[in-house]
Amino acid sequence: MSVSTEEESTESSLSRDPRNESSLSRYFEIGRRGSTVAREVRGGIATFFTMAYIVVLNPLILTSVPDSTGNYLAGGDVAMIAAATALVAGVMTILMGVVANYPLGLAAGLGLNAVVTFGVAGLPGMTWADAMGLIVLEGLIILILVLTGFREAVFRAVPAPLKVAISVGIGLFITIVGLVNAGIVRKPAGAPPVELGIGGSLAGWPTLVFVLGLVAIVVMYAKKVQGAILYGIVGATLLAVILESVLDIGGQTNAEGELVNPTGWSLNIPQLPDHVANIPDFGLLGQFSLLGSIERIGIVTVILLVFSLMLADFFDTMGTMVAVGAEGDLLDEEGNPPHTNRILIVDSIAAAAGGAASVSSNTSYIESAAGVGEGARTGLASVVTGLIFLLATFFAPLVSMVPYEAATPALVVVGYLMMRQVKEIDWDELEIAFPAFLTIVLMPFTYSITVGIGAGFLAYVLVKIVRGKAGAVHPLMWLIGVLFLIYFTLEPIRELLGA
Q1: What is the dihedral of CA 426, 428, 434, 440, to 10 degrees?
Q2: What integer pLDDT is reported at residue 428 of this predicted model?
Q3: Which of 118, 124, 156, 485 would you call most buried, defined as having the most Cβ atoms within 10 angstroms of its Cβ?
């Protein structure tokens, strides 16, 4: 045993004695869980570096397309969105540590932010404020479900393989968003509907930045480098800045939004901002309309959208907290983490807080397992992670220099990570396999996560009926199926009713 290991072991042994514990250690049960303050700090830092990419990616995703009125969130000001993203992540992660005493980081959810951007904000008549109001509603409903215990019924209603399919489908959806935004996949003037790069070939320096960024992240993942995604984004951005300063590549579009340079940069031209650090602008806080969406798209559509958001958020959280607990040997004999209800309550509040701050639903991050791998076992690690997120709000201007080509490799890698769950689906069982298949493929093919979920649920009910197993379908699945059937036929219904 090395000297450092012996010292750490001695420190851990002493910390288990209540007489030797500080008030901080006693509050977070550090000794009782076999940890030390040093391990918690290291774990909290590790979790931040594996999650920090969201401060860059969330603004880029939320400004990918305008809402139905043609407006971008915050006018496309990615620095403002980055500051709010880091603020909410910091506050809610600290709350998770203090209230639930669990080493879990929270931030704007990848996949959920794509739902808002591509599946909600662009609906006819919808604005960003309306879309964020749906997020607040979703968070409040989940909170009620947690407090009443109804979450157990919802959890039982949806078959586990369909939950897996939803996660896998979102992973593929995120991947195609990344490939399209980076210009790797484009829509040509004629057939086919999509093609590789320009004329079926990769072209341009920005494309090279994307490829090298993707290769770098994959190599670091293979080498088990903590923070691989963040390092990949930073490295690709620095390369982009150098290329732009030397070659003066420019952006793809002009001031009027017309395509003038197909091999230019997407979204941002990588140039150093006037200020690396600045007083954060939190002007997005409170920019939501709680019930405005009901008047614009109707109560049925609102219910379906809220349910879709809730489903993705709710089950992802349950899986994440169990996975992190298993990594840290924190689960009881029934597989439950300590203070389960507190964890779910904080996570529910975080979902609503993300909507209230206009940065999309905040949820628990599986990347927290990196901190647990560094030794974190308590909420003190979450407090450390949250404090660093708060510090990051002052460096939000740096986000404005990141082009899509430098950030979107991370989306492809995250898509791969989510895709790995596909092995949990029994592809030989039609009753599960076909609904799961529709869920997975329709999300990227229709550019709509809601469509994928709805098609999968309806197919599940249909196959059960055909096989004479209608009685095996949970009553809530019948209700959900009817709602999605109405959702898919809303226009014919409106025409029939003359609405």
Answers
A1: 40
A2: 94
A3: 118
- How far apart (Å, rounded) are the C-alpha atoms in residues 162 and 439? 8
Nearest Cα residue to 133 out of 329, 363, 302:
302
Alpha helices (H) in 52-159, listed in sequence order: 53-62, 78-95, 112-114, 128-148, 151-157
Residue type at 65 in one-letter notation: V
CA 190 to chain centre: 34
For residue 62, give the nearest of 187, 181, 230, 235 by alpha carbon: 181
Q: How would you class 483 by CB atoms within 10 Å of its CB: exposed for 0-12, middle for 13-18, buried for 19 or more?
A: middle
CB 293 within 8 A of CB 133: yes
Whole-angstrom Cα distance, residue 427 to residue 49?
Answer: 36
Among 319, 369, 281, residue whose Cα is nearest residue 74: 281
Tell me: the pLDDT tens digits for 341-370?
899 999 999 999 999 999 999 999 877 877
Distance CA 499, CA 496 (A): 8
Residue 10 clears pLDDT 50, i.e. is over it: no
Minimal CA–CA distance to 133: which of 342, 453, 123? Answer: 123
The whole-number pLDDT of residue 243 equals 95
- For residue 52 the two structure tokens come to 């920090």
